[in-house]
Amino acid sequence: MTLCSILKHWEIDLFPEATTNNAKHPQWGSRLLSPKGRELHKAMEYLKLDSVSTGKPTYWPTDKRKIPDTIDFYITKNISKRYLKTKSCLELSSDHSPVLLTLSSKVLEKEKPCIFSNKRTDWEYFRLQVEETLNTSIPLKTEYEITESIEHFNQCIQQAAWNATPLNSAKDSVNESSVPVRLKVAEKRKLRKQWQTTRFPELKAKLNKVTKSLRKMLNSERNQGIQEYLQNLSATQASDYTLWKATKRLKQPEILITPVRSPDGKWARSANEKADAFAQHLAEVFTPHPDAAQSEEEEDEIYRALNEPYQLELPLHNFKKNEVIKIIQNNLNPKKASGYNLITGQILQNLPEKGWKFLTQLFNAILRTSFFPLQWKVSQIILILKPGKKPEDVKSYRPISLLPILSKVFEKLLLSRLRPIIEEKGLIPNHQFGFRHKHASIEQAHRIYKKKYIQA
Predict the structure, then answer these.
(1) What does the buried/exposed string (b/e) look like for 226-260 if buried means 16 or more CB atoms within 10 Å of the residue's CB?
(2) Burial level of 225, CB count in 10 A (0-12/13-18/19+)?
(3) Residues in domain Endonuclease/exonuclease/phosphatase (predicted)?
(4) Does residue 308 belong to any structural domain of this protein?
């Protein structure tokens, strides 16, 4: 008995059917592709069936040499995925995780990420809100006052951006038919009503003829609309990248959520267990290196030199408002990811005059007190799998830290003050290429080759 005949025997129509087998295919989130999976996917495509899964592993082998995989999923037909919601049940202790499916009578809205700005943000209203709520008379003499002023700035900017940004509501797509189609539909309904009343064979023949003509008109109009839609697609910014958005709506395979092995050798099934496994690994990685071998006398001498009074070095010059505006307007990427406070470069670039003034006072206060705010040290860590590494190992992921944008602005301003001093005094030796502007590793390799073989 073939898979097509089995699926036809199930008579799947407007109802989901659960399946548990060893048919593996990336279409429903499996890690591997098996012959049974290829045959099942081919049968589902022939019968126009859809697969619904969580993308998470459902089989957890006891053998440590094997890797979990997805083999439990649902098969549906004529049901939009906007009405379906799947969830893995991890309460059981067996080697299989059941998959729970919820079928709703309404469209299930996905949880959207919290953002403070989009293409519909009213920036004029945003600047007006900042002008009314931002207080520039806050004293900035102590560490506590600087910390409180940053919190005040974050709250004002977030509230103003939230008020100026309308919520994106889902729009119901309505296909408007042309006038000939609407007239043909009215004619069909009239004939159908007459035939249902009289049951004359002549009316039935006319009704079938009008129905066939209406079907041809609808197909022709639909094909014409598709052709016009495809011709207007473009991959440029002028059309808001309509080609990329159109491809995202196509039927795509389920994204595999890779399992992770805990340090104790067990599989981390839930999101909390994965977070604990990564947290334990990052806590070991982020441990500070031991200090270089040096005596206490050397350390005392360094601290004594730093704290010695009547030093001849003058303090750094204060930042000017034009410098702050130039850094934010020209050196910030508006699409760069923000930190935990969700204040992006685009929001900073649309600040009013009062906002520039506040930031200038804040940066100068930090420079004067030599206190770097604790809020700017809080980072949001995102883990990215390294190419060619095992996805189940926590050591195979590269941590990316997302810091607040304001901390990066201050670092750029401070670098503009430190770089002339470093170059003037020659504090960095010429043979150092790491962490230097316009000093790549390939240039260091050329320098070593020249020193050893050409100038030798």
Answers:
(1) eeeeeeeeeeeeeeeeeeeeeeeeeeeebebbbbb
(2) exposed
(3) 22-99
(4) no
In a domain, 220, yes or no: yes
Q: What does the alpha-carbon distance between residue 416 and residue 414 come to, in Å, rounded to a whole number?
A: 5
Same-domain pairing of 391 and 279: yes
> How far, in Å, CA of 15 to CA of 59, rounded?
25
In a shared domain, residues 63 and 37: yes
> What is the gyration radius of the CA atoms in the chain, in angstroms?
32
Closest CA to 285 of 190, 168, 381: 381
CATH number for the domain spanning 74: value is 3.60.10.10
Which residue among 164, 193, 214 closes a domain? 164
Q: Is residue 264 part of a domain?
A: yes
| 273 and 236 inside one domain | no
- Same domain flag for 39 and 141: no
**3-class DSSP assignment, residue 52:** strand
Beta strands in 61-157 (DSSP E): 72-76, 84-88, 99-103
Range of the domain at 441: 431-455
pLDDT in tens, the chain (456 residues): 565 665 555 554 445 555 556 788 888 888 888 888 899 889 888 888 888 888 888 888 888 888 888 888 888 888 888 888 888 888 777 788 888 888 888 888 877 788 888 888 999 999 999 999 999 988 999 999 999 999 999 999 999 999 999 876 655 455 677 888 999 999 999 999 999 999 889 999 999 999 999 999 999 998 888 888 878 877 776 666 677 777 776 667 777 888 888 888 888 888 898 999 999 999 888 877 666 556 677 778 878 877 777 666 778 889 999 999 999 999 888 888 888 999 999 999 999 999 999 999 999 999 999 899 999 999 999 999 999 899 989 999 999 999 999 999 999 999 999 888 888 888 888 888 887 877 888 888 888 888 877 765
Joined together, the tokens standing for residue 266 give 């067990």
Domain total for the chain? 5
**How many contiguous H segments (helices) and E segments (strands) does the chain have?**
14, 9
Helix (H, G, I), strand (E, B) or coil at 173: coil
Same domain, 328 and 422: yes
